[in-house]
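Q: Is it fine to ask for two folds in a single conversation?
A: Yes, each is treated on its own. Send the first.
Q: Here.
A: Result:
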Amino acid sequence: MSHRWKRAGRAVASLLAAGWLLAACTGPAAEPKTTAPAAAPAPSGPLKVSVITHGTAGDAFWNVVKNGAEKAGKDLGVQVEYTSDGDPGAQAKLIDNAVAQRTGGLVVSMANPEALRPSIEAAVRAGIPVITINSGEDKSAAYGALTHVGQNESIAGEEAGKKFKDLGKHKLLCVIHEAGNVGQAQRCDGAKTGFAGAVQTLQVDISNPTDAESRIRGAVQTDSSIDAVLTLNSQVAARAVSAVKSVGSKAQVATFDLNSDVVAAIKAGDVLFAVDQQQYEQGYLPVQFLKLYRDNANVVGGGKPVLTGPDLVDKSTVDKVGQYVQRGTR
């Protein structure tokens, strides 16, 4: 080999050695490196929040949630848009539409979590913060929501069951009015735990109140040992009271949720107590939390749900609470 090629070979070897030394010094940096995307700047102007629930038209319970969300919007300068649909597929489409319109935050009730999962996860991927309310607490974090606001349905049901037990009742009928609503199943399961006695469940359809009353009437008439009826909605409670009276049953009624009719029924002794989950807070607090998150990166709850109930309302407290029911905040 000529001296010229030997010198060239030594130069190449020197370069390779230098490259190896450089790689050894820098170590892992020699491998491809992924860089996290820069955080998007906080949007300017008023925050827009889309509140999308599974409430049905004319439901007094969800009207109070809406009142809370809209009041928070006025107090905090947040643009709040409330929509609802009791059909899970239609509710998912409402969420998809809000994401497509680049809403600044989502507040979603999850009566049927699996049906809403793709839409909620798509919102999270799009960088839209989500807070769940009312139903679906156990799926909230898994779907990427910041937090959940509502009462724990199992705890609330257990408190209702304990109350009936303390009142000396022996057999409880728990009335479910929305098929597939996980929260209602949890309420009845909790009632079984708290009651520690015989508990029977009955499925009715809230959209057919006449049939719901007929089914409740049939249940208490067929089984005279039923001495307690727990409904999971204030409108169904009125039907239960009518059903019990129509057949002279000894059963006494209690219910979840308040409205003016339930307040009057508690005062009259037709309803023993109401499990109030203070749904005004379920509308108000998420809007406040999303504003704090947008403006100050605050996350409320420390990874745990923010509970709004239960608060049991009976004759001893109904006068005070009733005034707030009249103005649409309880």
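Q: Second one now.
A: Result:
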Amino acid sequence: MTKEEFQKLTQNVVLLDGATGSNLMAAGMPRGICTEAWIMDHKEILQDLQKAYVEAGSQIVYAPTFGGNRYSLGLHGLQDKLAEMNHALVNISREAVGHQVYVAGDITTTGKMMEPAGDLTYEMAYEAYCEQIQVLEDAGVDLIAAETMINIEETLAALDAAASVSSLPVMCTMTVEADGSIFSGGNAVEAAIALEGAGAAAVGINCSVGPDQLVSVVRNIKENVSIPVIAKPNAGMPVIDDQGNAVYNMNAQNFAEHMKVLIENGASVIGGCCGTTPDFIREISKILRR
């Protein structure tokens, strides 16, 4: 996908997919393991989920390459298999959905704190993102999605890396509190302005809280950027049950009604994060067809 093609696609509301991780855990994935390795051993579970998202109306699905950078894979001693794993994970998604929808190469934070709070330098982050994004483009993704980002500088490193090794459009979403503040400092509007300036094709928020708490955040982003605004929130706020599982407080219909409000306030690239399922995407799709 070229940046021009992405621009044309986003002239109308674009429907992303919903959660991956929370659905895999519901399907039996244990905690604390390498998600990417588990998916490679249980690819049918991921493929059934992505097929269900497409059937529900998703126009873009995220390849399960979320933790496929050298630092995250290194926690499991798998950093030397980075290229092999990212290729395989993209192929799993492409096999599931073909070319009827777009497949985004999913990247996220390295999990290391940026200087001065930690020892991750801009150069280290840049090199790690160059490495993964190059592999993702070689594997045939249509665009890049940098999601669940918690540091503006690290996200800028990812964008700079993408610009140096790829011509694909990049969507960027930060994780924020209900007031728009970012975990490591700054806020969603500052991030959006900086990321648009650095070449992002679309900017916004994902994960964090439910759509009911993000109306002013989305509106403020929309008022300050000229590119599409992304909203991919959780299914409300989770409560931890007796087994240690997160139980989210919104059902699919309730979630979709709140997403309609976010669309009215400027979001035009929309989907769901933790706690959402294909049913949530289906309900949003119904609203879009009204």
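Q: Anything structural to flag on that second result?
A: Two points. The chain has a mean pLDDT of 96. The first strand starts at residue 14 and ends at 15.
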